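#lab-general

N.A. 3:47 PM
ok so I finally got the sequence cleaned up, no stray characters, all 352 residues accounted for. can someone with queue access submit it? mine expired

B.Y. 3:52 PM
send it over

N.A. 3:53 PM
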Amino acid sequence: MTMQDARQISAAATPGVLLSVRDLQVHFPRARSGWFAPPEVVKAVDGVSFDVPRGKTLAIVGESGSGKTTTALAAMRLSPITGGQIRLGDTDLGALDGEALRLQRRRMQIVFQDPYSSLNPRERAGAAVRAPLDLMSVGTPAQRSERVAELFTAVGLRPEQQRLFPHQFSGGQRQRINIARALATNPELVVCDEPVSALDIAIRAQILNLLARLQRELGLAYLFISHDMAVVEHICDDIAVMYLGQIVERAPRRAFFGNPLHPYSVALMSAVPTVHGGRRHAARRIKLTGDPPSPIDPPIGCRFAARCPVAEPACAAEPQPLREVVPGHWVRCRRVDLADGVPQAPLRAPQA
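B.Y. 4:20 PM
back already:
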C-alpha cells in the first residue's frame, strides 16, 4: 500500500459523505489446475477507494472485467470482502454480519441491469415492490399497501398496474418497477448496476430523467455502474474509471469530461458515439491493441502499460500510485504533468 493510499484510509469519515470505501479488496480463490499446481487467486478488486456524498452520484466506468460491478456488490456487502473498509455514514458495514447487516439493508438498495430477469415472472408487480416492506417489517399491512401505491405513482406507473405480471409490461416499465422496489424502504443509497443498458435508446433517457428527478426529490445518493460514457455524463457528479481492479482516474464530471488525463480514459472517451461527424469521429478513435492482463497475475507496474500507446519502460517497472494532480482530480499515471498549473494528458485523440 502506498503512503498516499494510507493517508486516504486513515482519514476519518468526511462530513456529508454517505458511502466511504477505503482500500477495498475482493479476491476469489480458484481451484487448483493440478495436484502440484500453486493456488491461484483472481484479484477482481485490488485496492479501491472512493466516497459517495449524500444526494450525489458517483459513476464507476470501465470495460467488461474491470471490476466495477464487483466493487458495487462488495460495497453493499453482497460480495465477499478480502480487505478494506466500507462505511455507510457512521456505520462500519465490514464489521457487521447476520441480523445487524440485514437491518442496514433498509438504507441501501440496488437496481439491476436486466429489468426482466430481476423480477419473478410468477409474482405480480405490486407484490414485488411490497416484498422489501414485508421482509423488513416496515409499517402495518395497510401502510405497506398504501406505500406500494405511492411508489407506483412516483415512478410513473398507475396503481392499478400492481395486479399485472412482469411479462405484461414493457422493458422500461419493468425497470420502473425495479426502481420502485429499490425505493420501498426509503434507502439513502441506491446502487444502479447498468440500469439502462438493456433498454432502447429512447427509453434510456426516460429512465435517466426519472432517476435524476427521484434524486432531487428524495435526496438519494447513487453509485452508478456503467460502460457508457454518454450515459454517465448525463447523470453523474463525479466519475471513477476502473481498469483491471484498480481506479486509474477519479474526478468531478466537468473536470473529467473537459480534460481526461489517463490514457485509458482518453481511449474510452474517443469511443463515445456522436450524432454528427460520425466518420470524422471514427477516424479519431484510439484503437487499443491486445487484451487486458490476467487478474490472477497482474503486472508489477502500471496495469495498462502493455496496451498504452504512450507507455515508457519505467511505466511497467514499478507500481503507479493514485495521485492528486490538481485538487479533486486523481490519476494513476506517471506521465501526467502540469503546465502552468493545468494537468496535461500524455495521450490525445488524433485530429481527423
